[in-house]
């Protein structure tokens, strides 16, 4: 009895901030500057945030830059929601069941008989996949074995979202349990494939359903006589000239763009005569090098598009971009941001660091660095519009989630380059 009472005394006498809690989740976004992670709890489907510090112990990762979107992790938190330890939950498979990026590329390049299955959700597959891959979402594969080749000796390779993604191992196990003899998982997955600047494709049926202002159809042929509806023209040879000039000028790659486009996450679909033409590959490699995140090549190119009798136009092709960024949940339109800032009708919270703020900030803005936001809620009104901004949108997005989880309903965030927005709209900083 005495021992039990002593244990309870120790537990209840322990400072709350020292009590540990384990959480498991999938990263949605991370700010290394702000030391905050936004993650999805797979059990509750809730979005939450945790903080980390320079003292946070990392396991199965060399640096916080490896904690990218869709990374699965387990974290031990103190009572203040700060991670003492973060561990990436890596996929574990026998060595003989794993294929790496170079091996997979060589198999594809050699044209050997091979079935590549994309084990991610179909929505992920549609917006970009490894050339030749078929959509085989792991959660539906057991009920749809007809997706797989009839010949069970055919080599199969499944991939998904990276080294912490369990979907390709799951697809592998299903295939092996159903008699397929030669099955491997490309564990590094689509993120590494893109990182190594190997081509990504989209299919014509998906593109035909997305001919809208939220997608950029970039025709890189020299002199197209007819073209996909809504396409904009920028020849690959012109892109190469720009690239070589900027290399000579040592212009930063992350600032290189097309048509003054700020959104480096814009979905760009490269169109050429075929998906393997020099124009298509060159344009893809250049734009990827310029840090555009969602570049893909139209599978089959214009030839396949026309053969399928999909919509084309003739005459002069557009040479100016007509693109509107699709707003993320909670994001504010640039025009509305400018109107609110210039009229003073909103409380603006600048979540950048004090050093960043010292180089220029909005008049009247309140500076609360992201990592200190939850300790300064008394400075943020719960009535009237509150707009959060940082340098590029990542920290502002995390701040938005933090406030929503604290019960705020009146917040928006700027998901754009702050520097570009104020410059383009003539807003003076102090």
From TrEMBL:
InterPro entries in alphabetical order: GlpE_sulfurtransferase, Rhodanese-like_dom, Rhodanese-like_dom_sf
Keywords for this protein? Signal
Q: Which SMART domains match?
A: RHOD
Which stretches make up the Rhodanese domain? 110-202, 215-314, 342-430
In terms of domain of life, where is this protein from?
A: Bacteria
Leader sequence range is: 1-20
| Designated name of the protein | Rhodanese-like domain-containing protein
Say which species the protein is native to: Photobacterium alginatilyticum
């Amino acid at each position: 009895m005495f021992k039990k009472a002593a244990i309870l005394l120790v537990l209840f006498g322990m400072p709350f901030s020292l009590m540990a809690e384990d959480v498991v989740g999938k990263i949605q976004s991370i700010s290394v500057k702000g030391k905050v992670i936004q993650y999805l709890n797979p059990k509750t489907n809730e979005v939450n945030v945790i903080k980390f510090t320079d003292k946070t112990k990392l396991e199965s990762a060399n640096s916080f830059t490896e904690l990218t979107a869709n990374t699965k992790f387990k974290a031990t938190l103190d009572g203040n929601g700060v991670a003492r330890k973060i561990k990436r939950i890596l996929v574990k498979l026998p060595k003989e069941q794993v294929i790496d990026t170079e091996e997979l590329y060589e198999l594809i390049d050699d044209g050997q008989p091979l079935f590549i299955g994309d084990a991610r959700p179909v929505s992920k597959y549609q917006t970009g996949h490894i050339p030749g891959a078929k959509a085989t979402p792991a959660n539906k594969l057991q009920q749809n074995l007809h997706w797989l080749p009839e010949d069970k000796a055919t080599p199969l390779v499944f991939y998904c979202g990276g080294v912490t993604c369990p979907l390709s191992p799951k697809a592998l196990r299903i295939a092996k349990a159903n008699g397929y003899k030669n099955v491997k998982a490309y564990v590094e997955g689509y993120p590494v494939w893109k990182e190594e600047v190997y081509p990504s494709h989209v299919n014509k049926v998906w593109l035909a359903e997305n001919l809208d202002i939220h997608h950029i159809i970039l025709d890189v042929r020299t002199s197209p006589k007819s073209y996909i509806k809504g396409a904009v023209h920028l020849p690959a040879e012109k892109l190469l000239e720009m690239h070589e000039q900027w290399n000579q000028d040592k212009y930063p790659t992350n600032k290189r763009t097309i048509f003054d486009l700020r959104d480096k996450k814009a979905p760009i679909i490269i169109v050429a005569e075929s998906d393997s033409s020099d124009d298509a590959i060159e344009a893809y490699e250049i734009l990827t090098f310029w840090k555009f995140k969602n570049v893909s090549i139209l599978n089959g190119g214009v030839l396949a598009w026309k053969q399928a009798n999909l919509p084309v136009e003739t005459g002069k092709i557009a040479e100016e971009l007509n693109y509107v960024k699709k707003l993320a949940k909670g994001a504010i339109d640039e025009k509305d941001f400018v109107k609110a800032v210039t009229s003073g009708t909103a409380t603006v919270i600048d979540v950048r660091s004090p050093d960043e703020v010292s180089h220029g900030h909005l008049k009247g803005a309140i500076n609360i660095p992201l990592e200190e936001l939850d300790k300064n809620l008394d400075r943020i009104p719960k009535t009237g519009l509150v707009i959060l901004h940082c340098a590029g949108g990542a920290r502002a997005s995390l701040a938005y989630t933090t406030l929503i989880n604290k019960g705020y309903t009146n917040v928006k965030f700027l998901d754009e380059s702050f520097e570009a927005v104020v410059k383009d709209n003539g807003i003076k900083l102090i």
